[in-house]
Design goal:
Blueprint lengths: L2 E5 L3 H12 L3 E6 L5 H9 L3 E4 L5 H4 L3 E4 L8 H8 L4 E2 L1 H6 L5 E6 L4 H14 L4 E5 L5 H7 L4 E5 L2 H5 L8 E4 L14 H9 L10 E5 L3 H9 L5 E6 L7 E5 L2 E6 L2 E6 L8 H16 L4 H10 L8 E6 L2 E5 L6 H10 L4 E5 L12 H7 E7 L4 H7 L5 E5 L2 H11 L5 E4 L12 H14 L1
Parallel strand pairs: 1-2, 1-4, 2-3, 4-5, 6-8, 6-9, 7-8, 9-10, 10-11, 11-12, 16-20, 17-18, 17-20, 18-19
Antiparallel strand pairs: 12-13, 13-14, 15-16
């Protein structure tokens, strides 16, 4: 019996353990931290051996295969040891993809991948396909493969998940954009991060498709210098394309194999130019999978957007409160500031992943009237923006941040939570941060 060791007892780890058990592996789950109660119950139910609070090396290095949770960096000593012993270390998407013949749509990028994934899933489901949505969003891909049967999987995939693939290949890959993010995991080398994102296409063949943002200079540059076998389908809001999706006279036009689909950009419920791009990517996937054009148009009208992503919470005394907690990097926050047309009270801060805030300076000068810092260490934000904001306040909790925002805002303003940072200093994750913001706003 082959031995599968799963490092990390979270969503992807437990899903992999269930699938591994189903496929006849001897499975052991090891988590250096604590495993949540709900996951322990699942592991017990499936009679899977586990440990928490430690990694017992002898029980790990004897594995035939190791699945490493995306949160564990490559440089950890245990991972290095497994590599030196030539034990294969793979990610959950690599492991799970071996056990399904479904059509895989893989979506990655620094920003927009969640919205694009949810939109794509919505379009395909509306078109009557049997779709499962998984990966970096919602349920674990492995658990879905073990317990449900789908014809198509729409997977949101992070660069960390792509770091540990060998043969994984989506039939349709989407690359929304590439901006500096998670550089702490890539030795602060942007090139390493770019290469990680492009792994989504490395196993694709001429039969497969790569949909990408043709306005993204980083992507264009990489494609110029590297060979991709997949058929390229670009999208752009700035230029007319022979094939792919583009914007003309406020219409989204998609042309694939001389089949043309047009739709007014006003059909989108979502605001902002970046969402036009997300819509282009999703509608290109829908067209490749033969969804009726009328269905696509109708589906865009019913799509509600993503929680914690430019989510309008409440209007209080004519001040709009917006939850953009999912903005964990500078580029996401750039989109958020860009999409608001009223004066902004900006709540920002958290765990900095090597951020360069300079790109935000013009927007902050033009639109932001007050900055509310929300983090354990706000020095960098104070250094960069302290001299240009009329008011800058440091706070240590969400309730305090929202009270300060309420104090300094006036009729017609927008209070925008768009932190540009990870949330782990004060919150469990960005969802927890967003929920606390919404709760604090409702308490006003």
């Amino acid at each position: 019996m082959k031995r599968l060791v799963v490092l990390g007892g979270g969503e992807s780890g437990v899903g992999t353990a269930i699938l591994g058990k189903q496929k006849g592996y001897d499975v052991f789950v090891s988590d250096k931290g604590l495993i949540k109660e709900k996951y322990k119950e699942v592991l017990s139910k499936f009679e899977i051996d586990w440990e928490e609070g430690q990694h017992t090396e002898p029980k790990i290095v004897n594995a035939d295969l190791v699945m490493k949770s995306p949160g564990i960096p490559e440089k950890v000593a245990l991972v290095q040891k497994l590599r030196s012993l030539k034990v294969p270390v793979v990610s959950e998407i690599e492991f799970a993809a071996n056990y399904t013949n479904a059509t895989l749509v893989g979506i990655t990028g620094s920003n927009g991948k969640t919205t694009t994934t949810m939109l794509t899933n919505h379009l395909l489901q509306s078109g009557g396909l049997n779709v499962g949505m998984a990966g970096n969003i919602g349920d674990s891909f492995a658990q879905m493969v073990a317990q449900e049967q789908h014809d198509v999987y729409v997977l949101e995939i992070s660069s960390f998940q792509l770091d540990d693939i060998e043969n994984f290949k989506p039939h349709i890959a989407v690359l929304t954009n590439i901006t500096p993010d998670h550089l702490d995991r890539y030795n602060y080398e942007f090139e390493n991060y770019i290469a990680a994102k492009f792994r989504i296409t490395e196993n694709q063949t001429e039969e497969d498709y790569l949909i990408y943002d043709a306005d993204d200079l980083v992507i264009e540059e990489w494609l110029k210098n590297n060979k991709v076998r997949a058929k390229l389908l670009p999208f752009s809001t700035e230029k007319v394309l022979e094939e792919g999706a583009y914007l003309e006279d406020n219409k989204i036009i998609t042309n694939i194999d001389n089949s043309i689909f047009t739709m007014s950009a006003d059909t989108l419920k979502l605001e902002g130019k970046h969402n036009v791009k997300n819509a282009m990517a999703a509608s290109t996937v829908a067209q490749l999978l033969k969804i009726r054009k009328q269905t696509v148009r109708e589906s865009f009208e019913t799509f509600q957007g993503v929680e914690h992503r430019l989510e309008k919470v409440l209007k209080i005394q004519n001040v709009q409160y917006i939850n953009d907690s999912k903005a964990t990097n500078v580029n996401s926050t750039f989109y958020a500031l860009d999409s608001v047309s009223t004066p902004i009270v900006w709540i920002v801060g958290g765990v900095d992943k090597g951020n360069d805030y300079d790109a935000l300076l013009p927007l902050v000068r033009e639109k932001v009237k007050a900055i509310i810092c929300l983090g354990l260490d706000n020095r960098k934000i104070v250094d960069v923006f302290g001299s240009i904001a009329d008011e800058l306040v440091e706070t240590g909790s969400m309730a305090e941040a929202v009270k300060e925002a309420y104090r300094v805002s006036e009729k017609g303003d927008t209070v925008l939570l768009s932190p540009a940072c990870a949330s782990f200093d004060l919150f469990e994750n960005y969802e927890d941060r967003g929920r606390q913001f919404k709760e604090a706003v409702r308490q006003l």
